[in-house]
Amino acid sequence: MEPKSKLENFIEQHRDRFDDKMPDSGLWHKIEQQLPQQKREGIIISFKSLRIAASFLVILTAGIWIGIQFKTHHTKIDYTASPELKQLQETEVYYNTVVNQKMNQLQDAKVKTNIEADMKQLDDIYLELKKEMLTNEYANSQILIDAMIKNYKTKVDILESIINKQNQKQNEHESISL
To answer: Which residues, 6+ apart, have CB-to-CB distance to 132 below 8 Å?
Structure first.
Protein backbone atom coordinates (compact mmCIF):
# COMPACT_ATOMS: atom_id res chain seq x y z
CA MET A 1 0.00 0.00 0.00
CA GLU A 2 1.30 3.45 -0.91
CA PRO A 3 1.89 6.02 1.78
CA LYS A 4 -0.88 8.60 1.98
CA SER A 5 -0.28 12.10 0.82
CA LYS A 6 -0.71 15.11 3.07
CA LEU A 7 -3.98 15.96 1.36
CA GLU A 8 -5.43 12.50 1.98
CA ASN A 9 -4.38 12.62 5.62
CA PHE A 10 -5.94 16.05 6.01
CA ILE A 11 -9.24 14.90 4.46
CA GLU A 12 -9.39 11.82 6.68
CA GLN A 13 -8.75 13.86 9.82
CA HIS A 14 -11.33 16.54 8.95
CA ARG A 15 -13.94 14.44 7.16
CA ASP A 16 -16.79 15.56 9.42
CA ARG A 17 -16.30 19.18 8.25
CA PHE A 18 -16.66 18.14 4.58
CA ASP A 19 -19.64 15.80 4.95
CA ASP A 20 -22.08 18.43 6.16
CA LYS A 21 -21.68 20.53 2.98
CA MET A 22 -23.95 19.87 0.01
CA PRO A 23 -23.14 20.99 -3.56
CA ASP A 24 -25.31 23.58 -5.26
CA SER A 25 -28.24 22.04 -7.13
CA GLY A 26 -27.32 23.84 -10.35
CA LEU A 27 -23.70 22.71 -10.24
CA TRP A 28 -24.12 19.80 -12.70
CA HIS A 29 -26.07 22.03 -15.09
CA LYS A 30 -23.21 24.59 -15.09
CA ILE A 31 -20.63 21.84 -15.67
CA GLU A 32 -22.69 20.40 -18.51
CA GLN A 33 -22.87 23.80 -20.23
CA GLN A 34 -19.10 24.16 -20.11
CA LEU A 35 -18.53 20.80 -21.81
CA PRO A 36 -18.07 20.83 -25.60
CA GLN A 37 -21.29 20.09 -27.49
CA GLN A 38 -21.43 16.60 -28.97
CA LYS A 39 -23.59 15.60 -31.89
CA ARG A 40 -26.18 13.05 -30.97
CA GLU A 41 -25.57 9.80 -32.70
CA GLY A 42 -28.52 7.76 -33.87
CA ILE A 43 -30.69 7.04 -36.81
CA ILE A 44 -32.43 10.01 -38.26
CA ILE A 45 -35.22 9.01 -40.60
CA SER A 46 -36.57 11.65 -42.91
CA PHE A 47 -40.18 11.86 -43.94
CA LYS A 48 -39.17 11.18 -47.54
CA SER A 49 -37.50 7.88 -46.65
CA LEU A 50 -40.56 6.86 -44.62
CA ARG A 51 -42.77 7.55 -47.65
CA ILE A 52 -40.50 5.46 -49.87
CA ALA A 53 -40.50 2.58 -47.37
CA ALA A 54 -44.29 2.74 -47.03
CA SER A 55 -44.71 2.76 -50.82
CA PHE A 56 -42.42 -0.23 -51.13
CA LEU A 57 -44.39 -2.09 -48.47
CA VAL A 58 -47.71 -1.33 -50.21
CA ILE A 59 -46.35 -2.52 -53.57
CA LEU A 60 -44.89 -5.67 -52.02
CA THR A 61 -48.16 -6.49 -50.24
CA ALA A 62 -50.17 -5.90 -53.41
CA GLY A 63 -47.80 -8.15 -55.39
CA ILE A 64 -48.11 -10.96 -52.88
CA TRP A 65 -51.90 -10.64 -52.82
CA ILE A 66 -52.12 -10.67 -56.63
CA GLY A 67 -49.80 -13.69 -56.75
CA ILE A 68 -51.97 -15.61 -54.31
CA GLN A 69 -55.12 -14.71 -56.22
CA PHE A 70 -53.51 -15.72 -59.52
CA LYS A 71 -52.29 -19.03 -58.12
CA THR A 72 -55.63 -20.02 -56.58
CA HIS A 73 -57.52 -18.93 -59.68
CA HIS A 74 -55.29 -21.02 -61.94
CA THR A 75 -55.40 -24.20 -59.86
CA LYS A 76 -59.15 -24.69 -60.06
CA ILE A 77 -60.75 -26.38 -63.01
CA ASP A 78 -63.72 -24.64 -64.57
CA TYR A 79 -66.04 -27.65 -64.69
CA THR A 80 -68.57 -25.69 -66.73
CA ALA A 81 -66.13 -25.26 -69.65
CA SER A 82 -67.21 -28.52 -71.32
CA PRO A 83 -69.40 -31.60 -70.79
CA GLU A 84 -66.26 -33.71 -70.33
CA LEU A 85 -65.18 -31.53 -67.39
CA LYS A 86 -68.64 -31.77 -65.85
CA GLN A 87 -68.34 -35.55 -66.13
CA LEU A 88 -64.87 -35.33 -64.53
CA GLN A 89 -66.35 -33.47 -61.58
CA GLU A 90 -68.97 -36.18 -61.04
CA THR A 91 -66.29 -38.86 -61.42
CA GLU A 92 -64.08 -37.12 -58.83
CA VAL A 93 -66.93 -37.08 -56.33
CA TYR A 94 -67.69 -40.75 -56.96
CA TYR A 95 -64.09 -41.97 -56.70
CA ASN A 96 -63.31 -39.82 -53.65
CA THR A 97 -66.27 -41.41 -51.90
CA VAL A 98 -65.19 -44.92 -52.89
CA VAL A 99 -61.56 -44.29 -51.83
CA ASN A 100 -62.68 -42.94 -48.44
CA GLN A 101 -64.93 -45.96 -47.88
CA LYS A 102 -62.12 -48.35 -48.78
CA MET A 103 -59.65 -46.52 -46.53
CA ASN A 104 -62.11 -46.90 -43.64
CA GLN A 105 -62.23 -50.67 -44.25
CA LEU A 106 -58.51 -51.01 -43.57
CA GLN A 107 -57.96 -52.41 -40.10
CA ASP A 108 -54.18 -52.52 -39.63
CA ALA A 109 -52.83 -49.08 -38.68
CA LYS A 110 -49.37 -49.82 -40.08
CA VAL A 111 -50.81 -50.89 -43.43
CA LYS A 112 -53.08 -47.86 -43.44
CA THR A 113 -50.08 -45.55 -42.91
CA ASN A 114 -48.21 -47.15 -45.82
CA ILE A 115 -51.27 -46.95 -48.06
CA GLU A 116 -51.74 -43.27 -47.18
CA ALA A 117 -48.18 -42.63 -48.41
CA ASP A 118 -49.00 -44.43 -51.68
CA MET A 119 -52.24 -42.47 -52.02
CA LYS A 120 -50.26 -39.24 -51.51
CA GLN A 121 -48.02 -40.15 -54.44
CA LEU A 122 -51.05 -40.82 -56.61
CA ASP A 123 -52.57 -37.50 -55.45
CA ASP A 124 -49.38 -35.71 -56.51
CA ILE A 125 -49.62 -37.32 -59.96
CA TYR A 126 -53.27 -36.28 -60.15
CA LEU A 127 -52.39 -32.68 -59.28
CA GLU A 128 -49.71 -32.67 -61.98
CA LEU A 129 -52.29 -33.82 -64.53
CA LYS A 130 -54.68 -31.13 -63.32
CA LYS A 131 -51.97 -28.47 -63.55
CA GLU A 132 -51.11 -29.66 -67.06
CA MET A 133 -54.74 -29.28 -68.08
CA LEU A 134 -54.90 -25.75 -66.70
CA THR A 135 -51.54 -24.74 -68.18
CA ASN A 136 -52.60 -25.90 -71.64
CA GLU A 137 -56.00 -24.23 -71.25
CA TYR A 138 -57.90 -27.51 -71.55
CA ALA A 139 -56.08 -28.62 -74.72
CA ASN A 140 -55.93 -32.43 -74.89
CA SER A 141 -58.41 -32.43 -72.03
CA GLN A 142 -59.91 -35.81 -72.93
CA ILE A 143 -56.48 -37.49 -72.73
CA LEU A 144 -55.77 -35.83 -69.40
CA ILE A 145 -59.24 -36.65 -68.04
CA ASP A 146 -58.72 -40.30 -68.99
CA ALA A 147 -55.37 -40.27 -67.17
CA MET A 148 -56.99 -38.65 -64.10
CA ILE A 149 -59.74 -41.29 -64.04
CA LYS A 150 -57.13 -44.02 -64.45
CA ASN A 151 -55.35 -42.54 -61.44
CA TYR A 152 -58.53 -42.88 -59.36
CA LYS A 153 -59.07 -46.43 -60.61
CA THR A 154 -55.50 -47.28 -59.58
CA LYS A 155 -56.22 -46.02 -56.08
CA VAL A 156 -59.34 -48.15 -55.84
CA ASP A 157 -57.55 -51.22 -57.26
CA ILE A 158 -54.73 -50.91 -54.70
CA LEU A 159 -57.21 -50.54 -51.85
CA GLU A 160 -59.34 -53.47 -53.03
CA SER A 161 -56.26 -55.66 -53.30
CA ILE A 162 -55.19 -54.80 -49.75
CA ILE A 163 -58.71 -55.31 -48.40
CA ASN A 164 -58.96 -58.73 -50.14
CA LYS A 165 -55.66 -59.81 -48.57
CA GLN A 166 -56.86 -58.51 -45.23
CA ASN A 167 -60.10 -60.50 -45.56
CA GLN A 168 -58.22 -63.65 -46.61
CA LYS A 169 -56.00 -63.44 -43.54
CA GLN A 170 -59.04 -62.90 -41.36
CA ASN A 171 -60.84 -65.91 -42.91
CA GLU A 172 -57.74 -68.10 -42.46
CA HIS A 173 -57.47 -67.03 -38.85
CA GLU A 174 -61.14 -67.81 -38.23
CA SER A 175 -60.89 -71.25 -39.87
CA ILE A 176 -57.78 -72.09 -37.82
CA SER A 177 -59.46 -71.10 -34.58
CA LEU A 178 -62.50 -73.26 -35.33
So the answer is: 144
Cα(166)–Cα(103) distance, integer angstroms:
12
Q: What is the pLDDT of residues 81-108, one digit of tens each?
A: 778 888 888 989 999 999 999 888 888 8
Phi then psi for residue 43, to 5 deg, are -95, 125
63 alpha-carbon distance from chain centroid: 18
| Identity at 14, one-letter amino acid code | H
What CA–CA distance (Å, rounded) separates 47 from 54?
10
| Residue 7, pLDDT above cutoff 90 | no
- In sequence order, the 6+-apart residues with CB closer than 8 A to the CB of 115 are 103, 106, 158, 159, 162
Question: Exposed, middle or buried: residue 54 (CB in 10 Å: 0-12, 13-18, 19+)?
Answer: exposed
DSSP annotation of 19: H
Inform me whether the pLDDT recorded for 14 exceeds 70. yes
End-to-end CA distance of the chain: 103
The DSSP output letter for 81 is S
Q: Is 24 helix (H, G, I), strand (E, B) or coil?
A: coil
**What is the pTM assigned to this prediction?**
0.53
pLDDT score for 157: 93
